[in-house]
TrEMBL record:
Residues found modified as N6-(pyridoxal phosphate)lysine: K183
Function statement: Acts on leucine, isoleucine and valine.
Family to which this protein belongs: Belongs to the class-IV pyridoxal-phosphate-dependent aminotransferase family.
Pathway: Amino-acid biosynthesis; L-isoleucine biosynthesis; L-isoleucine from 2-oxobutanoate: step 4/4; Amino-acid biosynthesis; L-leucine biosynthesis; L-leucine from 3-methyl-2-oxobutanoate: step 4/4; Amino-acid biosynthesis; L-valine biosynthesis; L-valine from pyruvate: step 4/4
Keywords assigned by UniProt, alphabetized: Amino-acid biosynthesis, Aminotransferase, Branched-chain amino acid biosynthesis, Pyridoxal phosphate, Transferase
GO biological process: isoleucine biosynthetic process; L-leucine biosynthetic process; L-valine biosynthetic process
Pfam families linked to this entry: Aminotran_4
Protein name: Branched-chain-amino-acid aminotransferase
Enzyme Commission no: 2.6.1.42
Cofactor(s) named in the record: pyridoxal 5'-phosphate
Length: 339
């Protein structure tokens, strides 16, 4: 194998040795299978190709200083996938089977888990797709669950460094009562133009307001938003954002640190009052926000005056990473340690 430059990995696909697959046929899930083939052979009328019966997840495995391998909150991802399955009428994969698949795929690709010192991780990408043929708009009767892994570095430029974001009003990623709370591919298709606009203009990512009123903060591209002021961690309550497991973990850590935690609609204007803010997610971890520009209204909400991450964001980031890598006790029982 060609030497991997662990410290300079980007967030991209690298071929690994194995993926894990599981098929749903005749009303039940089969056994997990280890596979070394990268491609899928599916029917051209599969519902995932036409009607978007596709769900995915994203989580990470970490190699600790102690050499142990840890997967962060796989049960939470299993539950979110089940919620997505209910949302687009796909059969739910039981939590136990999901976690077993995570273990199996990580162990089989152990040589791709970045070393502790690199600060990189193994990204795990489960997907569940409708493979049964349909021409009418109906759910499939057959499904396939696949999990692959790939070693990754930071999603946003510089890792834990501040970045600028831009409010995009021309496109919505999800409708108020649409599929925003589910991790379905369609939401990401809907985000591609906004994301390109933001990147072309030199921003790290697009920033969404609520689709109905364009008044409240929704999400930060493929990450949740949080703001900090007056010793309070504030994150949006919205029917169109993905319930981030990272955000949920940060809310708990913030509370543990003695911060107040608020989940409520956040009007755009409130951006001017935050002492710190960040985008958070599995890929992003915490990506501190330097400023958020609202080009149509000629406004720029500068969050970090000196361009550096704020102290509370840094404390949260260090605490979360310490739990993920096994440097600090896992008091909330979040981590699955592989044996
Ligand atoms: N929001 C969106 C739209 C995402 O794609 C993600 C990534 O999974 C997140 C938020 C963050 O969620 P999590 O922390 O569970 O990775
Ligand atoms: C994640 O944070 O896991 C994501 O899914 C973000 C993006 C790569 C879709």
């Amino acid at each position: 194998m060609k030497e991997i430059d662990w410290a300079n990995l980007s967030f991209g696909y690298m071929k690994t040795d194995y993926n894990v697959r599981c098929y749903y046929r005749d009303g039940k899930w089969g056994e997990l299978e280890l596979c070394s083939e990268e491609t899928l052979n599916i029917h051209m009328a599969a519902t995932c190709l036409h009607y978007g019966q596709e769900a995915f997840e994203g989580l990470k495995a970490y190699r600790g200083k102690d050499g142990k391998i840890r997967i962060f909150r796989p049960d939470a991802n299993a539950e979110r996938l089940q919620s997505t399955c209910r949302g687009i009428l796909m059969p739910e994969l039981p939590t136990e089977k999901f976690c077993e698949a995570m273990k199996m795929v990580v162990k089989a690709n152990e040589r791709f888990i970045p070393p502790y010192e690199s600060g990189a991780a193994l990204y795990i990408r489960p997907l569940l797709i409708g493979t049964g043929a349909q021409v009418g708009v109906h759910p499939a009767s057959e499904y396939m669950f696949v999990v692959f892994v790939t070693p990754v570095g930071p999603y946003f430029k510089g890792g834990f460094a501040t970045n600028p974001y831009v409010i995009i009003r021309q496109f919505d990623r999800a409708a108020p009562l649409g599929t925003g709370t589910y991790k379905v591919g369609g939401n990401y298709a809907a985000s591609l133009r906004a994301n390109k606009m933001a990147h072309d203009a030199g921003y790290a990512s697009e920033f969404y307001l609520d689709a109905k009123e364009k008044k409240y903060i929704d999400e930060c591209g493929a990450a949740n938003f949080f703001g900090i002021k007056d010793n309070t961690y504030i994150t949006p309550l919205s029917t169109s954002i993905l319930p981030s497991i990272t955000n949920r973990s940060l809310m708990q850590l913030a509370e543990d640190m003695g911060l107040k935690v608020e989940r409520r609609p956040i009007p755009e204007e409130e951006l001017s009052t935050f002492e710190e803010a960040g985008a958070c997610g599995t890929a992003a971890v915490i990506s501190p926000i330097q400023r958020i520009d609202d080009l149509e209204n000629n406004k720029s909400y500068v969050i970090s005056k000196d361009g550096k991450p704020g102290p509370i964001s840094e404390k949260l980031y260090n605490k979360l990473r310490a739990i993920q890598y096994g440097d600090e006790p896992d008091v909330h029982n979040w981590v699955m340690v592989l044996d």
